[in-house]
Amino acid sequence: MATEALVSFAVERIGDMLIQEASFFKGVRGQVDRLHKDLRAMQCFLEEADKKQEEDSRVRNWVSEIREAVYDAEDIIDMFILNAQSLRTHSFPERAFKKLANRYKVGKKVEAIQLGLQDISNRREALGIKNIGEGTSMSRSAQMLQDLRRSTPHAEEHVVVGLENEADKLVNQLIGIDQRRRVISLVGMGGIGKTTLAKKVYNHTQVLKHFPDCRAWAYVSQDCRPRDVYMQIIKQICSSTKEQVEMVEKLQEHELGAFLHEHLKDNNRYLIVLDDVWSPSDWSCLAKRSSNDPDCLGNVFPDGGKGSRLLLTTRSKEVASHADARSIPHEMRLLSKKKSWDLFRRKAFLDIDAESYLPDLKELGEKMVDKCNGLPLAIVVLGGLLSKNMSHIEWRKVHDNINAYLAKEGSQTGVMTVLNLSYIDLPSYLKPCFLHLSLYPEDYVISTRKLLLLWIAEGFVLEQDRQSMKDTAEIYLNELINRNLIQVVRTSVNARVMECRVHDFIRELAIEKAKEHNFFGTNIVVEPHLFPSSSSSLFSSKSRRQSIYSDFERYASIEHYSTPYLRSLLFFSLGGICRISQLDFITKCFKVLRVLDLEGLGIENVPSVIGELIHLRYLGLRHTGLKMLPLTIGNLRNLQTLDINNLKRVPDVIWKITNMRYLYIEEQEQDDPLKIDTVQNLQILSGITFNQWIRNNSSKLTCLEKLKIEGRCELVEGVEFSNSIAKLHSSLKSLYLKASDESSIPSLAMSSCPHLCKLDIKGRMQKLTETFQFPRNLSQLTLEACRLDCDPMPILEKLPKLLTLRLRAGSYLGKEMHVSANGFPRLKILQLLGLSKLVLLNIEKGAMPWLMQLQFDFKTEIFGLNELLNLVEVKSPFFLFRAMILFHKIKVSFWGLMRIAGAKGGIHIRRQKGLTLASSRQALERLADFLEQYRRLTRAIGH
């Protein structure tokens, strides 16, 4: 389905160009229109063909031909527009002649593509490819893989490492006192050990005793068939005669569901394991029956108030929350280095002590285990493979090509084959986003802001009514995270993902699939021994994307004329200064480029010819050291994203780029005028100065959702500035004001902005805005360096929808804060950090009833902590080792303590889940006691 999605995006784009660039198509519009219709017609058959191409190389070639035809059409149209644009500077006679020649050439090329499409279409029926909706069932290889992966609870792993604590926790959940029927989900990426853990728990002695009469294990798979699942369960929980079995087998699916429901209802309690559930809809199909009350979820698996349990294994967090919103999913973790080596040692060396082997084998083994990045399946496959041959030569062979061996070993049950199931299960709109991850270096931490903007520029995110493309892209990202294909590295205080990464084997899968679909040419680590200076042999003429991981100068020296239709060029981890002449090859060789990201590449200047890249949608120049942009940047009329910082001045040509949506120009050195009010599609504007902003007519920026204004503001008049913000009332959602030096933030009334939900203010404020002047839907507020003398809580506690409040360094200069009863009715996160004079926070009973996370400096004493019954997290820059010693010495029940990663460090205390009201009160008393003893200890030591 990746081909289907890529073709769909390309066809959509051709249609958009026919509308947006209508003036260029005079004379050839009819032909291009017909080509567009032909391509749309071919889309109808691609979904079915995508399913069949795994089985039939002829179908695979057929799909490839369609993809190439669409790419050819895209290339012809892009080049036609480029040539037509370049003719505008020519004299009239020359321009007229070249226009006719250009149209004739394009007409011939379009005609050739149409003939090719006709031939492709004629071969469709011979290959058995049907229209959408007439597709066949699961492919033969998928069915074979499903049969091989079919799990049973009896084949329990003898070598299990790192699951002991997890197993104990799950056992406690299964046999706990809660008498409701609960669904407990094991969630994690393919190969992480979900089924292994489920088997261990299913066969645990305590579980066997607790569920003595009614236990069953059913394998679900991607091809979820409720009837088959019901039959698996019934055969295990019913002791039936041969005649009864035959009778049951004749029942329809809904009748089987009703039969199973009645049998489970008659039992004292039951435990059902559903292994490998793929989607919420699969769970819904399994959990309800079609008779009586078909819309009642859980109808097949009754809740008799007897403590029954269902245990699910799934790769999707969405399945877990859909199955039981009250239960917290058990998220599987990758193994630590120590546990990874222990598992490998026991698999590779069997019963023989690893130390008795040569040190070089151990060294090779450790390096290979590191490459597995804690994925149990990869470690088990690797250990099994190496246990067959203990020679250094064989181990070296595997070490040098580990990914190929892991993909091949076990064939249908190899690592890559198991992970490939997650790719197959992706909906078509997510597959291009997943393939895009193949462009990033191994273990690279990816900025999600940048990732989403790149997906948009690539055309992977389609516009939807009432939702911005960036919001849609974020939904796509979260779907990939929920499917355990992307790992979260860092989140914001309100749990939005800020940074992410991809596991090495998931990245390998993305690379393999990207090559299959001609998604990119080559990911290149440019090194001297890989290329002679003029070599271009690694680049296909059809390469659409390239990512460069190393030496820019060597890459620039290679001839690139063999890849004229490159659409995306990304650079990573580069350093040094790039001479202006070195960037010339980009505009000369890649004329239809859409994405150019030079972040981190030291650049002295950008050549003016960059203005010729009229198809460019994304230009990334952040952290390049660049001080000036050429005026020709205004010619990039299709540019959607410009991302740059620390410019000396921004050229006053942005007003020409009317398609701009995302403009990042932070930390300008000079405050020169900048006209932007003609850019009416602008959604994010970050880094405009106060003086630049006030000279624009903000009422024209009707799409602006996120605004960051910075710089000096002493010349900005308060009422005028306040009015300029009020004009954004129909769109503004996020506002960040950052004043430099000693200037003060202008007074501001924002009550007329109903959609404004996030406000950040950094800089001196004469006084805090009154409650009624804040936006009525404000949910997140951050204050920093405001130097407020008066306690801000009496004003802020009355904000009815505030969820997150962050008071950072210098925001308040007083010693005490007071929160009155009923204050902050919805607040969930409170951060008080860097308030050097604050010694007391007094919280009255009834205040902050929903507070879940509290961050504060250890010098601040908190009265009223015992009443925060929903508090589950406390973070503070405590001295780590001192806090740990005291924490364990006084045995702070119900809480766990861990270190906060990062330069500032500190401790993170988290409360156990599922506590009763009485236990919650006890937990808060223990926490308050710990905090008080820590303060006393710190004072005694003298800090």
- Amino- and carboxy-terminal Cα gap: 61 Å
Question: What is the share of helical residues?
Answer: 25-40%
Gyration radius, in Å: 31 Å
- Main pleated sheet: 18 strands, mixed
User: Helix tally?
Assistant: 30
What is the structural class?
A: alpha/beta
Number of strands: 31
- Overall average pLDDT: 81
Segments where pLDDT lies below 50 for 5+ residues?
Answer: 132-138, 289-297, 526-538
Shape: globular
Query: What percent of residues are in strands?
Result: 5-15%
Provide structural commentary.
The chain has 943 residues and is of the alpha/beta class. The chain contains 30 helices and 31 strands. It has an 18-stranded mixed beta sheet, with helices on both faces. Strands 2-3-4-1-5 form a five-stranded parallel beta sheet, with helices on both faces. Strands 6-8-7 form a three-stranded antiparallel beta sheet. Strand 22, helix 28 (793-796) and strand 23 form a beta-alpha-beta unit. Helix 2 runs parallel beside helix 4 (92-122) and helix 14 packs across helix 15 (359-371). It is globular. Mean pLDDT is 81; it is low at 132-138, 289-297 and 526-538.
Compact summary:
By secondary structure, this protein is α/β, with parallel strands linked by helices. 38% of the residues lie in helices and 14% in strands.
List the helices and strands and how they pair.
Layout: H1 2-20, H2 29-52, H3 57-86, H4 92-122, H5 140-149, H6 164-174, E1 182-187, H7 194-202, H8 205-210, E2 215-219, H9 226-237, H10 242-249, H11 253-266, E3 271-277, H12 280-287, E4 309-314, H13 317-323, E5 330-331, H14 337-348, H15 359-371, H16 376-386, H17 392-400, H18 402-408, H19 415-424, H20 431-436, E6 446-447, H21 448-458, H22 469-482, E7 487-491, E8 497-501, H23 504-516, E9 523-524, E10 545-548, H24 552-557, E11 568-571, E12 577-578, H25 584-589, E13 595-597, E14 602-603, E15 618-620, E16 641-645, E17 662-666, E18 684-689, H26 690-694, E19 706-711, H27 718-726, E20 734-739, E21 758-762, E22 780-784, H28 793-796, E23 804-807, E24 816-819, E25 829-832, E26 840-843, E27 853-856, E28 861-863, E29 873-876, H29 880-889, E30 895-899, E31 907-911, H30 917-941
Parallel strand pairs: 1-4, 1-5, 2-3, 3-4, 9-10, 10-11, 11-13, 12-14, 13-15, 15-16, 16-17, 17-18, 18-19, 19-20, 20-21, 21-22, 22-23, 23-25, 24-26, 25-27, 26-28, 27-29
Antiparallel strand pairs: 6-8, 7-8, 29-31, 30-31
Helix pairs in contact: 1-2, 1-3, 2-3, 2-4, 3-4, 6-7, 9-11, 12-13, 14-15, 14-16, 15-17, 19-23, 21-22
